[in-house]
Write a structure and sequence with these properties.
The chain has helices at about 25-40, 60-70, 90-100, 115-120, 130-145, 185-190, 210-220, 245-260, 270-280, 290-305, 320-340; strands at about 1-5, 45, 75-80, 80, 105-110, 150, 160, 175-180, 195-200, 230-240, 285-290, 310. By secondary structure, it is of the alpha/beta class. Helix 1 packs parallel to helix 11 (about 320-340), helix 6 runs parallel beside helix 7 (about 210-220) and helix 10 (about 290-305) crosses helix 11. The two termini are about 15 Å apart.
């Protein structure tokens, strides 16, 4: 089971000035978190893509390239690349170059995005949201497998026997599909035999099981092996020294991140009782003491059959020290226990 962290690069408002925090400083902090995760021995680092002033990173490949030069083993992925608004040729070229810089550690998680800013910025009609994504995914898959690409569609000029250099260092650039919870998205990943990353944002984790079972059933019916149908999950994440301190420390930042009208926020107003519910053993929020996190991850492994976990490590204006302490506890106390318990590599769901 792979263990990692991710950042969506949200910017919060400084209460003393009323201005958004400095995006340059925020981006450099994110790079430092990835370096810390690599040195501590975590497996993967993901970075989101947004096209709003409320986030500091628009093209994850650029900060990931900086991270590649300062790390040795951690895998580097987008989380996610908004494929509907991107040119698949350029996306593959960017991450193939990242693969060279990282000596074969680059990946792409492609998704449709829950934010509409990118569609307006790049002139994509949201009415064609799914059609554009499906077509561009088809082109990206073709680029991954064909040395000379011949392809045509409705939303991009055709390619007629053209190479798409550079070729990645890996034989094929790994590609996951990011899914927010819709059956059609899970079915698409399953039919194509692509690993799926599911965002667990709120509620009871057991509610995700029917979607995951559907993904695996459709994938098996399409002729794909269980080893091909890998599952990753992402959750908001914070590990503290004790259960009480973790909850007390995290709550104000979690509430700030989610509350309505907060730049980068989701528009949810969460009170302390709701926070406790989502932080419960079967809740989607991954927070608590190291042992609580261990127990909760193993529960997710048992119920959902996950192959990769990625925790969103920094949000709501969490201070540097808090994020770094959480990364260290994750890597030194949680990860060894999870790896020991999952050493067989066999999921039970």
């Amino acid at each position: 089971m792979e263990l990692g962290i991710l950042s969506l690069s949200d910017l919060q408002t400084d209460p003393t000035t009323g201005r958004l925090h400095d995006p340059a400083r925020r981006t450099r902090e994110i790079v430092s978190y990835a370096i810390a995760a690599d040195r501590a021995g975590l497996d993967v680092f993901g970075l989101g893509e947004h096209h709003s002033p409320a986030f500091s990173v628009a093209n994850p490949a650029v900060p990931l390239a900086a991270i590649a030069q300062a790390t040795n083993r951690i895998r580097l992925t987008s989380a996610v690349s908004v494929l509907s608004t991107l040119d698949p040729v350029r996306l593959h070229q960017d991450f193939a170059s990242l693969d060279h810089l990282s000596q074969g550690r680059a990946e792409i998680i492609a998704g449709r995005s829950a934010f509409l800013e990118a569609f307006t910025l790049f002139g994509i009609d949201p009415a064609h949201y799914d059609d554009v994504f499906a077509e561009k995914l088809d082109l990206l898959l073709t680029i991954r497998t064909d040395e000379q690409v011949t392809w045509s569609g409705r939303h991009r000029p055709p390619l007629d026997g053209l190479p798409v250099p550079p070729h990645p260092q890996q034989e094929t650039l790994p590609l996951w599909l990011g899914v927010g919870g819709t059956p059609s998205s899970a079915e698409r990943a399953a039919r194509l035999g692509l690993p799926m990353v599911l965002g667990l944002i709120g509620g009871d984790i057991r509610r995700a099981r029917p979607l995951i079972e559907h993904y695996r059933a459709v994938g098996r019916a399409a002729g794909h092996t269980p080893g091909t149908l890998r599952l990753g999950v992402t959750s908001h994440f914070y590990v503290g020294k004790t259960s009480q301190s973790a909850r007390q420390d995290l709550y104000p930042y979690y509430r700030e991140y989610l509350r309505p009208k907060t730049p980068g926020g989701r528009g949810w107003l969460i009170d302390s009782d709701q926070f406790e519910a989502v932080a419960s053993p079967l809740g989607a929020l991954m927070t608590g003491s190291p042992q609580e996190i261990i127990d909760k991850m193993l529960t997710e492994r048992e119920l959902l059959g996950i192959d990769r976990f990625m925790g969103q490590i920094d949000f709501g204006g969490m201070p540097n020290s808090m994020v770094n302490d959480s990364i260290e506890l994750f890597a030194t106390e949680v990860a060894p226990a999870i790896r020991k318990e999952t050493a067989t590599g066999v999921t039970t769901a």
